[in-house]
Amino acid sequence: MFRPATAIAPDVTETVTKSIRDHRKYLTSGSRYISAHHTAEETVGRFSAVADAVVEAELRITFSKRYGRGANWDREEHTVQFAAAAQCTGHGCTAPRHEVPATGVFLLDADADETAPAALPLVAEARAWAQKHAETCRALPYDGR
Ligand SMILES: [Zn+2]
User: What b/e string do you get for 31-48 counting C-beta neighbours within 10 Å, with b at 16 or more?
Assistant: First the structure.
């Protein structure tokens, strides 16, 4: 029997645009504690497996910096990249992890509303794996010991 463990269903587009805007804000704040290289991890799905182990889908938003392309070769530009993963926390699970590799690189300065949808297919794949895994995995919940 499959059932969602909790109603975690954040709006991915909103999560991503907020993350991009926050990172821009940090960069312009000039705080020396903020790095141009930073990965934000967002839980985008959580499922309960057959024996109650928790399977989570997560989106990783990686902020970075590189030299520009073409005529901008001498200018640094900030970039955003998405990857996703699904992880089973079950004790003794034999295949607990599924990675959805990063795809394209986007510019931090680009319109966040246009960049964000690129994360959707990755999230969909991670969620689908997590759900399918939850339907069959018999690992026991991890009890912290
Ligand atoms: Zn498992």
Answer: eeeeeeeeebebebbbbb
Query: Which residues make up the environment of ion ligand 1, defined by Cβ < 5 Å?
Result: 88, 90, 93, 137, 139
Percentages helix, strand, coil for the chain, rounded to the nearest 5? 30, 35, 35
DSSP 140: B
Q: Comparing C-alpha atoms, which of 49, 41, 117, 25 is closest to residue 85?
A: 41
pLDDT at 120: 95
Q: What's the 13 CA to ligand 1 centre distance in angstroms?
A: 28
pLDDT in tens, 86-109: 999 999 999 999 999 998 999 999
The pTM score is 0.85
Torsion of CA 107, 18, 44, 122, to 10 degrees: -20
Please name the amino acid found at residue 9: A
Cα(126) to ligand 1 centroid in Å equals 14
Q: How far is CA 118 from CA 55, 82, 122, 141, 142, in A?
A: 23, 8, 8, 33, 33
Distance, CA of 34 to CA of 126 (rounded, Å) = 29
CB 61 within 8 A of CB 82: yes
